[in-house]
Amino acid sequence: MAGWSRRDGGMGVGNSDRQMAASLGFIASAALGGRTASMSSESADEMKRSIMSSDCNKASGRSFMEFLDRITEESNKEEKLGPLHDAAGKGKMDTCQHLVENLGFDVNIPANDGSGKTPLACSVSCGQVIAVRYLLHKGADLNKQDVTGFAPLHYAAKRGYDGIARLLLSRGANVDVNSSEGTPLHVAAAHGKFGVMQILLEHHAHPDRVSPDHCTPLAEVLCAANEKVNESGCLKCMNLLVKAGADLNSTDPDTPLVIATSKGLTGCVDYLLEVGADANVRSKDGGRRPIEIAAKSGRRGLVESLLPFTSPIRTVSDWSVEGIIAYARSRPTEDKGQESDEDSNIQQNLRDESAVREDAGASRACTKDKLSDEDRKAQLKLHGGKAVSRMDYTGASKFYTEAIMLDPADATLYSNRSFCHLKIGEKKDALVDANACISLRPEWPKGYYRKGAAHMSLKEYKEARDAFMDGLKLDPSNLDIQNAYWEADEAMIKKHSAGQSIWPFA
């Protein structure tokens, strides 16, 4: 018990400390004894409060709080999914065998939470290959889909589990089973999982299937570029699809060349041109060719790449790099109705998943002569998202400010503007907007993430950690917030070790 001491510096142990030590000793012994301790959220919260108010060693306190979070999450998952799902997901083979062989559990039993997820899907999504083999041996349906249409193969594709994907396919998994996010190939492409994509294509996955979101696998991997996979990884995945016969000029949701140009992916544009993509196919929204999109956004390098492959445009008198850029910039924004929102609409169709641009993609552009306040707000969101995509955070902030004037109760606008403030160094303004976001939408984890980020930039690490903790209470599985929490925690420790007493246990 040397890690526990009284606040007055004495050598004794207070009653509350003894109670805490006993409680923590119980859960520690449960873990060491080979079983998972079960604890309700209420009990865990009470124990956390006890830890925070105690004199425990800071490292021990962190470890115990992390352990409490883990066992609480595990208990909640077990309650939501079911005991066989829990055992399969954790690779507890003795428990799996007991439940199936002694208690007669159905290996295809759906989860208790209404998701329709099977024990096999749980074992696949957690990478528990021994459990996967056992459940297949016991007759698990490897093509059974949950309420989103995901089969076990989708989960292997999403996580990038090459070996499990190969195992499922060898046992007869449907390579093109469809879901709300498309086939396993769509899912693997959307997450840049090269190895799984290769395996799926070896098993004759269709390279041009269109998902419910109107995307081909080639479009999916381009949408994921610089979000879930770097451009180099994107190129590798594209090469796989092209070799498998993917249509280079499919317009679902736009041609690959339009998508790559809109996202400024120079390497991808060069590759597509090299393998024969048509540079003259226009975008769906606005009807512009890739070279016009590149010129409008000021991407000179892309204009230079596209120029030799593009047929001259009749209305461009100077068919040169400079002439095309000048033409694109001088072109009236009202031409062809909705062309002023060309880039934003393309980003909308691509389902851009970045934090700030996500909401922009949910809105539709409207012609200027028919704008209501709601339509105007939606258009400002689109412009804000486009500005963020160009890293013009000052411009984006102005668009979000205008939108807030139209609708001061939209929490997303404050969240997005907080992000922009942070990017341009306006730290206190970022915090103000984060607090406004939380006030308007207290159940949304993103607001607490923004608040924590603002506090981190202000070097207010305890406040940042508290904000991230509040976000985790709402969304315990959010990896971004988890990582941010521990980053703030580490910063607190470093600041404390430098001589500033901020540790709450001290």
UniProtKB/TrEMBL annotation:
Disordered as annotated region, ranges: 330-371
SUPFAM superfamilies given in the database record: Ankyrin repeat, TPR-like
Keyword Oxidoreductase: no
Keywords, ordered alphabetically: ANK repeat, TPR repeat
PROSITE patterns, sorted: ANK_REP_REGION, ANK_REPEAT, TPR
Highest taxon in the source lineage: Eukaryota
Record carries keyword Mitochondrion: no
Residue ranges of TPR repeats: 445-478
Residue windows of the ANK repeats: 115-147, 148-180, 180-212, 252-284
Biased composition (Basic and acidic residues): 350-371
InterPro entries with a match to the protein in the record: Ankyrin_rpt (IPR002110), Ankyrin_rpt-contain_sf (IPR036770), Cul2-RING_E3_ligase_SR (IPR051616), TPR-like_helical_dom_sf (IPR011990), TPR_rpt (IPR019734)
The protein's name: Uncharacterized protein
Originating species: Setaria viridis (Green bristlegrass)
Lineage: Eukaryota, Viridiplantae, Streptophyta, Embryophyta, Tracheophyta
